[in-house]
């Protein structure tokens, strides 16, 4: 259908800003149905994302890592757009602080005295988000220092 | 004529006021710049979520029933208006303009198609919004604090969820949002837009923000059209999306976000308008303070001269008397 597309225009946007805008070869994202990798000539798709790590292979061969806390991915003809609730590039995340935030989030869960479904959902959402951030940082470090 | 001293004090106080208004003008200008940037930054997300919802509803609509937030209610009896106002005054006609617009619109749509009276309830955002109650006597069902520099869409989530749950539970048959559209630094226009039900097949005017010539906010029609042509059509064949897990689930997730981003944009628009309205108001205040000070300076000069003349007259009269 689109023979001459060898590269994808890729964008990560959140409600507040555009996090990333690059030309890439492929991207791996965590969706509700499992992790998927999108390469050029992928069929048009809209999928729901879950908190996790995004792996991007850029035009110049470099690999970049980002964390996402949920949202959507939209695959168009030669463009992939990620509508994220929050997203961060791994290079912008501070490892120590991410880990601290994760521990804080986990502690919140322990401190719940009464069971409140809404609160529980928001806390477990926060934990998933922080976990994704820490994972992203760890993966990023591994790639940079093999 | 008051004495030179009195006028001098007056001049001083006017000049002090001028300094204050000047400072406020500058603060407002800086804040305005920031809020305008914020509006522009959210545009990408807003546009993209709109196009996705439009595409989605096409896909789902063909297969079966639409999302409840996309379906119109047959009879409109209760309308909720989310009224975005400022927290502080001294911003010219900003608040009264939006209040008046809201009032006019309520009066205009007083009756539904069957001639029944429509009940209107107001959800107020910002302290000055209580004027809707005190001046026009509307029923205010909730009051939310307004953040002056909104940075996260999280901040409007409670308002959005109130509107959504109210609509789903049937407390409102329609939800509107009244906000001030930032057209340019010198002109802002109060507008009322439909938030719920989400109108996917609307005519030009219905998308939030896209009104008149200014298409900088909300959904950019051109953008959507171009995008469809560019990415969804190959020569003459257009193709459709695959949705994972299912169109319905994606839609369920996407629609509340769309509502949030729309409200968020309306808030950002209002903020930008408020700051630019305040900037203009304060600029005018500084100008008139300057005029007043100039006029008072003239009076002061006259009074001073009169006093001197008086004194000379008295001295020479005294000297004459001694002769």
TrEMBL record, chain B:
Signal peptide: none
Keywords: ATP synthesis, Cell membrane, CF(1), Hydrogen ion transport, Ion transport, Membrane, Transport
InterPro entries (alphabetical): ATP_synth_F1_ATPase_gsu (IPR035968), ATP_synth_F1_gsu (IPR000131), ATP_synth_F1_gsu_CS (IPR023632)
Entry's localization field: Cell membrane; Membrane
Gene Ontology molecular functions: ATP binding; proton-transporting ATP synthase activity, rotational mechanism
Quaternary structure and partners: F-type ATPases have 2 components, CF(1) - the catalytic core - and CF(0) - the membrane proton channel. CF(1) has five subunits: alpha(3), beta(3), gamma(1), delta(1), epsilon(1). CF(0) has three main subunits: a, b and c.
Record function comment: Produces ATP from ADP in the presence of a proton gradient across the membrane. The gamma chain is believed to be important in regulating ATPase activity and the flow of protons through the CF(0) complex.
HAMAP family: ATP_synth_gamma_bact
Name of this protein: ATP synthase gamma chain
Source species: Candidatus Falkowbacteria bacterium GW2011_GWE1_38_31
């Amino acid at each position: 259908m689109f023979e001459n597309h060898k590269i994808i225009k890729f964008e990560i946007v959140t409600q507040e800003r555009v996090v990333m805008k690059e030309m890439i070869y492929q991207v791996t994202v965590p969706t509700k149905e499992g992790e998927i990798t999108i390469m050029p000539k992928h069929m048009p798709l809209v999928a729901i994302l879950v908190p996790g790590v995004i792996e991007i292979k850029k035009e110049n061969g470099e690999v970049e890592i980002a964390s996402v806390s949920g949202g959507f991915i939209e695959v168009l003809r030669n463009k992939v757009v990620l509508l994220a609730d929050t997203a961060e590039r791994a290079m912008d995340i501070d490892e120590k602080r991410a880990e601290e935030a994760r521990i804080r989030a986990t502690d919140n869960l322990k401190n719940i005295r009464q069971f409140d479904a809404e609160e529980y959902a928001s806390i477990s959402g926060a934990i998933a988000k922080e976990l994704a951030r820490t994972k992203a940082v760890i993966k990023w470090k591994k790639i940079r220092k093999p | 004529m008051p004495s030179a001293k009195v006028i001098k004090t007056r001049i001083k106080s006017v000049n002090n006021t001028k300094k204050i208004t000047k400072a406020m003008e500058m603060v407002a200008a800086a804040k305005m710049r920031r809020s305008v940037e914020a509006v522009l930054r959210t545009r990408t997300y807003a546009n993209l979520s709109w196009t996705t919802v439009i595409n989605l509803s096409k896909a789902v609509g063909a297969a079966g029933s639409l999302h409840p937030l996309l379906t119109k209610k047959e009879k409109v009896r209760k309308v909720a208006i989310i009224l975005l106002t400022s927290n502080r005054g001294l911003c010219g006609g900003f608040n009264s303009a939006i209040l008046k617009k809201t009032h006019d619109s309520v009066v205009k749509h007083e009756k539904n198609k069957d001639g029944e009276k429509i009940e209107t309830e107001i959800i107020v955002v910002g302290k000055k919004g209580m004027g809707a109650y005190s001046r026009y006597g509307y029923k205010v069902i909730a009051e939310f604090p307004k953040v002056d520099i909104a940075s996260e869409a999280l901040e409007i989530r409670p308002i959005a969820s109130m509107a959504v749950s109210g609509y789903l539970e049937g407390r409102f048959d329609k939800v509107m949002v009244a906000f001030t559209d930032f057209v340019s630094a010198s002109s802002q226009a109060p507008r009322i837009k439909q938030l719920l039900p989400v109108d996917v097949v609307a005519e030009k005017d219905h998308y939030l923000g896209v009104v008149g010539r200014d298409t900088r906010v909300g959904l950019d029609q051109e953008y959507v059209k171009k995008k469809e042509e560019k990415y969804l059509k190959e020569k003459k064949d257009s193709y459709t999306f695959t949705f994972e897990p299912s169109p319905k689930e994606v839609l369920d997730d996407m629609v509340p976000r769309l509502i949030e981003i729309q409200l968020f944009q309306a808030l950002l628009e209002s903020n930008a308008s408020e700051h630019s309205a305040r900037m203009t108001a304060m600029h005018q205040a500084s100008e008139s303070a300057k005029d007043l000070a100039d006029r008072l300076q003239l009076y002061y000069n006259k009074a001073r001269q009169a006093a001197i003349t008086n004194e000379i007259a008295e001295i020479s009269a005294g000297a004459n008397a001694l002769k």
